[in-house]
Amino acid sequence: MRLFDTLRQQIEPLDMRDQQVSLYVCGITPYDTTHLGHAFINVIYDSLVRYLRWRGATVRYVQNVTDIDDDILRKSRETGIPWDELGARETERYLSDLRALNVVMPDHYVRASDETAMMIEMIEALLTQGLAYVRDGWVYYAVRKDPGFGRLADAGGYVGYDNWLATANERGNFPDDPRKDDPLDFVLWQAQQPGEPAWPSPWGPGRPGWHIECSAMSVKYLGKQVDIHGGGADLVFPHHTCEIAQSEHATGVSPFVRIWMHCAMVELDGVKMSKSLGNLVLVRDLLPDYSPDAIRVLLLGHHYRAAWSYTEDDMRAAAELAAHLKQAVSATPHEGEDTGVEAAQQARLEFIAALENDFQSPQALAALNRLAKHICASHSAAQITMLRELAGTVGLRLD
Q1: What is the pTM of this model?
Q2: Among residues of the chain, what percentage have pLDDT more than 90?
């Protein structure tokens, strides 16, 4: 298999030594879920995991849930619901939506609030190396002391310090924090504020910064190096750029990630779908009118690296294709000699070739559609069996 690596900006072979693959995907901050952007990311990586396992690989898949951060606490204050109750409720809603879409749970689905010990261990390693500093119970990563900082940001189009700072400021950075040595230095640990939850640390009670969470959970559950690290393209900077800096210096292992695999944004009317803008198409609002297979077909009908905008026409077309595939696998096999074996094997080769080449899921769906058309003409048992198998490989039930 070959996948596009954001850091190297080219399609690279996936090194499947001993058929072992580790995958870490940045998950949600659990409030106001689950919109089609969430579903797109989860269906893509779920299908990738299913496909790799179907091809014989052993996949260790980890996803986090950021159940403690500024957004959760803000939403908690707005709603009057305790932060942990809010996180648990929204996480369950999110998982319920994903189960409806036949998304299989990762091997480890990890809550950030359960993993502070590993975060503290990594922060202490960074302090020992002089790459972090403590001020008033807060710990910061010293960006200027890391000459390699920003490689992923530059590769992803956020080029140079001024661009980094402007983007970070748009995404939650506080450049005027008087405790910082540099406006771009980012928080590893923050001291407890009035009314906020806290965990013990060598620097006093507080809670982790956002970026250190994923570094710690990835290292704990997958080791010091990961084969594929996934998430939305909006995480290239600052989140994943900061993850590289923290992880490689804390562990001494480089590269932290062999392939950075980023999913493009889902839009509505040409604008990125996001909780902050409120322009959301929610999975739970689509499910009364469309089958889970139809929604998966909609999502898989777009290549993971291409931004796309939701339309009702696309949704209806996806529903028609899902119904066509279901009709084909429900056909009564033709009695007598099966002349469809060769076409079934050809469809399998086309399906594999599409997914091996940077996970071209639209081309894989096209191979399934062609096979379904053959079935409508031949009612070949071999083709029906093959269609059901290949469809299941990308999570379609067709029932």
Answers
A1: 0.95
A2: 89
